[in-house]
Amino acid sequence: MLTLKGREEILKLIESDLVGGWDEADRALKNVIRMLLSQRPDLIRLYFMPTTWQQILRLDRRQAATVILVTMKGAVVEANGAPPITCWEQARFYLDTRIPVYEGLARAWCAAHPDNCPARLRTQTNSQNPTALTDGHCS
Questions:
Q1: pTM as predicted
Q2: What number of other Cβ atoms are within 10 A of residue 50's Cβ?
Q3: Are 13 and 73 in the same domain?
Q4: What gap in Å lies between CA 73 and CA 22, rounded to an integer?
Q5: What is the pLDDT averaged over residues 71-82?
């Protein structure tokens, strides 16, 4: 879905001093995408494969923004190597990608750490490998 340019921009964001945690990555992505959509939609178009961009253009404005944000969040997780979840902020970020594998990891983490997650996610189980998960706190 993303072009090489889009992936490079994700890596720049991750490597920047602006992003020190999952909450900061979430805020930074939202702000950058909001700015690009309002001021430079021609640039954001370059981040997506032409067929994907054509599909995005068919959506209403709000849906298009959501698809762009979700896709970029998935790319952030992928670029980081999908590290094991260690806190609710990271689990929420994984859930926001809407990518089944990442959602599954987040749901499994919430099932294993019910005190750290909203009630709606505490009892959901998942067939993901629980050994891939770790205890700890986000830094």
A1: 0.81
A2: 9
A3: yes
A4: 10
A5: 92
Residue listed under structure tokens 């979430």: 26
Q: Which residue has the tokens 């294993």?
A: 112
Burial class from Cβ neighbours inside 10 Å (0-12, 13-18, 19+) for residue 75 reads buried
In the predicted structure, residue 136 carries a pLDDT above the cut 70: no
d(CA 113, CA 137): 11
| Residue 83 to residue 122: CA distance in whole angstroms | 21
Report d(CA 25, CA 16) in Å as an integer: 10
Give the closest residue to 103 by CA, choosing from 116, 85, 86: 85
Same domain, 26 and 57: yes
Judge if 72 and 97 occupy the same domain. Answer: no
Range of the domain at 119: 88-132
Burial class of residue 123, CB neighbours in 10 A (0-12, 13-18, 19+): exposed
Q: Distance of CA 112 to CAs 25, 133, 136, Å?
A: 24, 9, 12
Beta carbons of 80 and 20 less than 8 angstroms apart = no
> How many other C-beta atoms lie within 10 A of the C-beta of residue 94?
25
Are 83 and 138 spatial neighbours (Cβ–Cβ below 8 Å)? Answer: no
